[in-house]
């Protein structure tokens, strides 16, 4: 049998905006079989929002596929592309609570949790808070958001060695006197109310974020300024605050979910979330099925990664 392909495009049969409090409304949609097995898809970023291709990891005849734009991005309101929109009510705890409110709104008892990159972080946080609501987990590109993980992405000793030109552009957008803490320096600019400051800072931040998503280079997505600003604001907000995770981190809570069937997939050459993070998760969770894709980077659509993810959802649909 060859590599599994994406399922054909599918349109939502239902969608809406869910009031989750704090003046926020979260966009959600449901696709596939209304009577099928529930599964929830968690997008990356944070702040990346949904793409139509995210629906295609699941057999639409077998699954009731639930997707949502996390707070302040995608079609959720208010949108962080407006620099006046505050992010104080956008934390991991808020997103976990949003998932529970959405589950209850849709009258779902339990669901499969599928996440990539930041989606693995949120998925693990949700499952550890509500293990009784999770049937299985499919995790791609594990991001634990530990200080060592962030040092890899935002200091000269990590991914900068593999993408030196992209790192130089990211670094050199900040004056030399402020380069001892690039995350803080970018934060001052991304949160500046002046578009002449926060728009170019957001572009530079996202150019680095998107520089290393796949093993083989692909053109970066064509994002307008509003989406770029929202993506940069939310991503920086979480990175600057350690993902709003408890001090002990996500590995400390794995015992609460070790009974949950799970598949962990990571690209060997994933520069954004190197496979050591997925390996550390597997060491804490040996019951989880673990795969390294030898010819893949960070992207969920790379052939070997896509194959394993769809193989997992096909197996769990029964």
Secondary-structure blueprint:
Elements: E1 14-21, E2 24-32, E3 37-42, E4 63-68, H1 92-105, E5 111-116, H2 118-129, E6 134-140, H3 147-154, H4 164-172, H5 182-190, H6 195-209, H7 225-239, E7 262-267, H8 275-284, E8 289-293, H9 303-316
Parallel strand pairs: 3-4, 3-5, 5-6, 6-7, 7-8
Antiparallel strand pairs: 1-2, 2-4
Protein name: Proline iminopeptidase
Organism: Actinomadura fibrosa
Main location: cytoplasm
Task: Give a verbal description of the structure.
It is found in: Cytoplasm. It comes from Actinomadura fibrosa. It catalyses: Release of N-terminal proline from a peptide. InterPro entries: AB_hydrolase_1 (IPR000073), AB_hydrolase_fold (IPR029058), Peptidase_S33 (IPR002410), Pro_iminopeptidase (IPR005944). Its EC number is 3.4.11.5. The chain has 318 residues and is α/β, with parallel strands linked by helices. It folds into 2 domains: 14-147 and 244-316, 3-Layer(aba) Sandwich (Rossmann fold), CATH 3.40.50.1820; 148-242, no CATH class. The chain has 9 helices and 8 strands. Strands 1-2-4-3-5-6-7-8 form an 8-stranded mixed sheet, with helices on both faces. Helix 8 links the parallel strand 7 and strand 8 (289-293). Helix 4 (164-172) runs antiparallel to helix 6 (195-209) and helix 6 crosses helix 7. The relative contact order is 0.15. The model has no long low-confidence stretch (mean pLDDT 97).
